[in-house]
Design brief:
Elements: E1 2-5, E2 8-13, H1 17-20, H2 26-36, E3 41-44, E4 69-72, H3 82-91, E5 96-99, E6 111-115, H4 125-133, E7 137-141, H5 146-165
Parallel strand pairs: 4-5
Antiparallel strand pairs: 1-2, 2-3, 6-7
Length: 174
């Protein structure tokens, strides 16, 4: 699930809804990670993109909290906010995790991660998490073409205009 902590988006894998519902700060997330240990996986979402929800420069302040760093699909050959994420992942010896952050099918397939496991037919969450932490993971990515980028930009504009017109509903229309 993607949740906000101190208004910054973090991917939390294998968490129970009831365990993280009340968590809203990094301080709480640090405590939760200590309690759950290796049974959860934490990845900062699109850390250096151009929105206030991105962790940005706070990433290094909380670097020990994370098991990897997201490489987001939303980039082109001329604009790539992932470059800073790559530098920090190398500096702190963390894997880059490819993610589509998809809201539509056309966004899938540009960026993803291949994870090295013994038997893909009998895979466990623990094995996936272990593979990520031991960097048995391969980032597969290609920049978006202009048409796909335009579709995403138009979708974002439409979504934000819809939100402005209906303040009573949250992101998912609830």
């Amino acid at each position: 699930v993607e949740r906000k902590f101190d208004k910054k988006e973090i991917l939390v894998y294998n968490a129970k809804k009831e365990d993280i519902e009340g968590l809203t700060t990094f301080k709480g997330l640090v405590k939760y990670k200590k309690e759950k240990g290796s049974s959860i996986l934490l990845i900062p979402s699109h850390p250096f993109y151009f929105t206030k929800q991105c962790i940005g420069d706070k990433l290094e302040e909380y670097i020990d909290l994370f098991d990897g760093i997201e490489w987001c699909h939303l980039y082109t050959w001329f604009i790539n906010p992932n470059k800073k994420a790559k530098k920090i992942s190398e500096k702190h010896d963390l894997p880059l995790i490819g993610s589509s952050d998809a809201h539509h099918f056309f966004q899938i397939g540009h960026t993803y991660a291949l994870i090295g496991v013994r038997d893909a037919n009998n895979i466990t969450i623990e094995e996936v998490f272990s593979a990520v932490r031991s960097k048995k993971i391969k980032l597969v990515t290609k920049p978006l073409n202009s048409l796909t980028l335009l579709k995403i930009i138009l979708w974002v504009i439409k979504t934000h205009l819809n939100r402005l017109g209906n303040k009573s509903k949250n992101y998912w229309g609830e």
